[in-house]
Amino acid sequence: MNNNKKKERWIQHYSSSHKILLIGEGDFSFSACLAKAFRNAANMVATCLHTKGGLLVVMEMLPVRHWTSTAHLQDLEKLGCLVLYEVDVHNMNEHPDLKQMKFDVILFNFPHAGHYSWLHERDSILIRMHQDLIAAYFKTAKEMVQEEGEIHVTVRDDYPYNTWEVEKLAECAGLQLKDKVEFRQENYPGYHNKRGGNINCNKKFPLKACYTYKFTLKVSAVEISDGSEVNDSASSELTSIITTVEDLQI
Ligand SMILES: C[S@@+](CC[C@H](N)C(=O)[O-])C[C@H]1O[C@@H](n2cnc3c(N)ncnc32)[C@H](O)[C@@H]1O
């Protein structure tokens, strides 16, 4: 018997033997929850869009946005998790610390393009912005996932969040749905969901009906010239969504 072999530990869909990348963390409480369940986080890379912070206090800093993050970051550090700041879904595959890595699971809980006092969640402009964010996540995550790996996204299923067409965006990116499972906050002890954005950033939002979608690379995806794989007709649809959002220049 190999006594050096570490015991595999699971929490829901996530195993201590997976190489896991977490995107768009709020106060890092979800990462900390996984790390504690595994009792070691050497298999995890936890990231956020915010800057780490320094002498000059600005809104973009994590400790300003999420002052509840301090304890979670301490836990993650103790357990050996790599924490990265300023990781943007639009170019995360080019990030110097990430570009050489491949992951078994990449996950983004509750992607959201931000809050604007002049926009409502039901407004098509904001819906397009959320779709653009998720489409960008799928596009870059695809480059970073192992061949047999999974790309997860957890979203709300109540209106208007259920109009985001997550499955269609994934299809456009050359991904296929493997599973869709209900997300229950109580399954992740210590996790506190955060609104993000500029308005009441550290506050929670209602988690009524939420689902984690698990996608894998599509087997029948067509090879295109730059080496990435994408479904032809779906690809042009995705481009049109992104172009529309870029045209708005918000
Ligand atoms: C509703 S919050 C959810 C935060 C956290 N995942 C949670 O479950 O509490 C949306 C998150 O998306 C992140 N986000 C928005 N745009 C992003 C981008 N371009 N790249 C990476 N993360 C982004 C924000 O920083 C924010 O933390």
TrEMBL record:
Domain (25S rRNA (uridine-N(3))-methyltransferase BMT5-like): residue spans on this chain: 21-195
Domain of life: Eukaryota
GO biological process, one term: rRNA base methylation
Segment forming the signal sequence: none
Cited InterPro entries: BMT5-like
GO molecular function: rRNA (uridine-N3-)-methyltransferase activity
GO cellular component terms, A-Z: cytoplasm
PANTHER family tied to this protein: 25S RRNA (URIDINE-N(3))-METHYLTRANSFERASE BMT5-LIKE DOMAIN-CONTAINING PROTEIN, PHENYLALANYL-TRNA SYNTHETASE
Protein name (database record): Uncharacterized protein At4g26485-like
Source species: Coffea arabica (Arabian coffee)
Encoding gene per record: LOC113743830
